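This is your field. Have a critical look at the following sequence-structure pair:

***
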Amino acid sequence: MARAHKPDFLIKYERWRDAGPPKCCHTCDHYDVGGKCMAFDMYPPLEFVNSTGQCAEWAQEIPF
């Protein structure tokens, strides 16, 4: 018996998982708990913080 095809929701989930976290201030290692960007030593504007793909300095180091 052949294995059943993956359902669409599973395919979408796997793509989302493989894409990684969204590249925004909230997921960046330079963004501290107080909302300050340590890479630029400033508080980014709200519209920048809530956008994705805006900063070339976005970083997330592998935790191991």
About this structure: The first helix runs from residue 8 to 19. The mean pLDDT is 93.
